[in-house]
């Protein structure tokens, strides 16, 4: 096939390279310089700062093919995927950018040449239509006079609701920030109907497709009402690779281009579907691409943040797999072929296949049971829905009881054209929040209350004591100029040697002092770009603009540094033992222990943990020098330094290297050599959430003390067992066999005793209309044996009601059993409720068996008479005798 998606991408990049543009690689799907975005959703994201200040730019002209994901916020295409021919969650955005270089004229000329030149895309000029912002006369004239386009092919787009700049052709980054008019290029699939362009813009004509948007960044929005010109003007363009591919491959759907055509055909082989235009096939093919690139970015399925988006996409795929008859796990099976198709331009995906397969398989398995239950209930409710509408209570019930995602339930209702009463859904949700006292209350942690627009230089990597100037003092949330003896507060300095709580490492402690004044620092935290020293004045007073000495607790810091370096060793060792699927998800590093959270979908057995320990201790014994290096982010990536890529990094980063064993980006403090760690011991392993594991560990004397405690426990157990510690395991095994023998003997004796009791008590059976009623009181009888006696009696007699009361010290247990054929007339649970009513006891059960316990039984014989009378009344109301 000519014009494959890979060829189109290369042509675009090569064209602009010939026009003096630098080809830059796609940035990560996780934005590095914008905390407001979950995912990169446009080509311009990585250049956001350049539009406001082109002085920051390294290049004047840039061209990229940017990987994007749109699943939330302003750009949320998730619900449209599959139902339209153009929308995707994951897609590539082709873009050329100019930072205070060329502007409108050149941008339009370049676009027209690329699209229409026979050397490049060779699109029929008559099939292209243009929209411009109504007030942008300059752009209109360029199209008209320079490109020589017919006025019939250009349309001006005005503002919505008479609101200035509120237009489809006025692009804005957000509520504030760079913005400007744009011109859009459309392709007309049916040239014979070229006079319906205005109808298309009113969403009434599907013959047209928008293929390119050229934005002229010439303003900065200060507020909702104020826009000012930018000193430097820039160009930002965006053309969806999948869209232009559909045009150049002469198909009317993105899902018919080469990459999707192969994928959809492969997916259909697992289903009963022969129609390759099926909506579910489209959705699965789109979503599986998103999953591959998200997992590559070290995102694991979870219930929050980016992990929730991945989990939602996987579950939405699974819903549609069920719809087309795929009941067994299959996502992981299509991963190898998809990666093979796309690695021509995404070489970095090679080697990730196994990790992606494992995560998808585990997530699919975990959700399958939930899906089956939820779908079964939802389909029943949909079938009986009055007026094609179901209550939001049903949607909430599925979520609250079975964990069935509400958004997926709403998706299914939408597909089946069933309305949902969303008001009742939100009412149920709010009700639950109030009951669990969650609500939307926001608790400040102190950092959010104190807002200081200032900085503090951290000089604590090399200094333990430093002379500093007091810049601010806070007592609680109040800014003061003086803090005196006995008062607690937060002191902010111009520079400090105290490391603030950050990156999982706890803050330093120590003291601030000057002459006779002394302030004990109990914690250190970040407040924006500055550092707060939290503590109490022990003697004297401190005043703003005074100098003082800051001194950290060196022993405390040293213990933290040792645990931090040990955490780096743990991270690397885990990846060596468990594989590259391991990705850090969080950590807590204190002076006493370390905790490390990481993504891993499988169970970690003891032998693997011991292997991790052995590797770490081997590196400790080698006494490696721990090196600190400052370099560019690109250089760090070349060194394959590990990083938490959800974090925002500066252009210059700090790299912590332990020989060739561990290389990580890290701002924390570290010990000088691995030998200082002394000993490393894992003390606990647990699961934090689905797919997230946690390891807790000790180092140095704490690790040794842990081992000593274990030895002491073994010694104490050995003394109790009256054996040597070396052989206590054999002694325990002998005791287990002995206990098993004794339990078997007890069971034999108890069975004989039960048989004796049955023979003894059946003489008390009363016959009422063919129903046998047996009431008996026991004293301190084995509770489980009573249940076995009831089971035996129900087998021996077809129609029987059994009521056993067991007196046990100050407590009374009542157990009621009824044969199944009698439950149409009365139930065991009804009898128990009578007992509870007269004793204020607690209990419950089912129709055939129920039980209760009470300590408030004043007159047992009277209660039993009431129950017996009730049973007589119930049975006497039966018209015919119940036959045995």
From TrEMBL:
SMART domains: tRNA_SAD (SM00863). Residues 3-709 form the Alanyl-transfer RNA synthetases family profile domain. It catalyses: tRNA(Ala) + L-alanine + ATP = L-alanyl-tRNA(Ala) + AMP + diphosphate. Its cofactor is Zn(2+). GO terms for biological process: alanyl-tRNA aminoacylation; negative regulation of DNA-templated transcription. It is found in: Cytoplasm. It comes from the Bacteria. InterPro entries: aa-tRNA-synth_II/BPL/LPL, Ala-tRNA-lgiase_IIc, Ala-tRNA-ligase_IIc_anticod-bd, Ala-tRNA-synth_IIc_core, Ala-tRNA-synth_IIc_N, Ala-tRNA_ligase, Ala_tRNA_ligase_euk/bac, DHHA1_dom. Its main location: cytoplasm. Zn(2+) binds at residues 564, 568, 666, 670. GO terms for molecular function: alanine-tRNA ligase activity; aminoacyl-tRNA deacylase activity; ATP binding; tRNA binding; zinc ion binding. Binds 1 zinc ion per subunit. One of its GO terms (cellular component) is cytosol. Signal peptide: none annotated. Keywords: Aminoacyl-tRNA synthetase, ATP-binding, Cytoplasm, Ligase, Metal-binding, Nucleotide-binding, Protein biosynthesis, RNA-binding, tRNA-binding, Zinc. Its EC number is 6.1.1.7. The keyword Ligase applies. Belongs to the class-II aminoacyl-tRNA synthetase family. Homotetramer. Catalyzes the attachment of alanine to tRNA(Ala) in a two-step reaction: alanine is first activated by ATP to form Ala-AMP and then transferred to the acceptor end of tRNA(Ala). Also edits incorrectly charged Ser-tRNA(Ala) and Gly-tRNA(Ala) via its editing domain. Consists of three domains; the N-terminal catalytic domain, the editing domain and the C-terminal C-Ala domain. The editing domain removes incorrectly charged amino acids, while the C-Ala domain, along with tRNA(Ala), serves as a bridge to cooperatively bring together the editing and aminoacylation centers thus stimulating deacylation of misacylated tRNAs. This is Alanine--tRNA ligase. It comes from Buchnera aphidicola (Aphis glycines). The lineage of its organism: Bacteria, Pseudomonadati, Pseudomonadota, Gammaproteobacteria, Enterobacterales. The gene is alaS.
